[in-house]
Amino acid sequence: MTKSKKTKIHKKVDGQLFQMNKTFSNLKMKQKDKITGWVFDEYKRYVTEHDKAPDLLADEQIVEAVLDKINEAQIWIPDGEIYDYYRRKKPQLQKRLDNEKVIKFKSYVSFYKSIVDQDRASVVICNLKHEIIYMNPAAVISYAKRGGDKLIGRSLLDCHNPESRDKIQQVVEWFAANESHNIVYTFHNEKQNKDVYMVALRDEGKLIGYYEKHEYRNVETMKLYDLW
Known about the structure:
Blueprint: E1 10-13, E2 16-19, H1 29-50, H2 56-72, H3 79-117, E3 123-127, E4 132-135, H4 137-142, H5 162-177, E5 183-189, E6 194-203, E7 206-216
Antiparallel strand pairs: 1-2, 3-4, 3-7, 5-6, 6-7
Helix pairs in contact: 1-2, 1-3, 2-3
């Protein structure tokens, strides 16, 4: 049995004939792409400006903004079709926005990593289990006799005596006690003329780990802007 074809209902407005029961699927592909882009842009604009997902009132504002663009582009589609389309696509819009944020963050990771890697002082990063999860090149060289990058995955506590282990644990507990507790001066090495610090690592305020930072007090011997 063949499916009956939907009857088109037309209305003449200002000399132009409009299909009153036109659906989103009836639009041309270019028109669909434009509207899809406008819907996402308006959704993204709202979430960016308000830092939250839109409520019902905001949904109407978003659709109205899209309808303005549709009218400017002289695309005919009943308003109700765009409201229905937005409601169907809203969950996907948030997923797309979240994916954009993840991709954007990942694109920055190489920048963050490079800052640490280019540091001439040792940087050793640990999680809250005290496992060494990263060592910058300077740290790998500095701790070569102890295993270099083979220390990654091992406990930082294994590299210290019982007294130092207790102090490390005390500092981590201090970090966890307050978000403003973020750096502790732990040691000065007279022989190498350097200071050693423990610095808290946080994700939106939540403590996720710490790193050991070494800063040398030696006067810089490099010439200013020595590019040759």
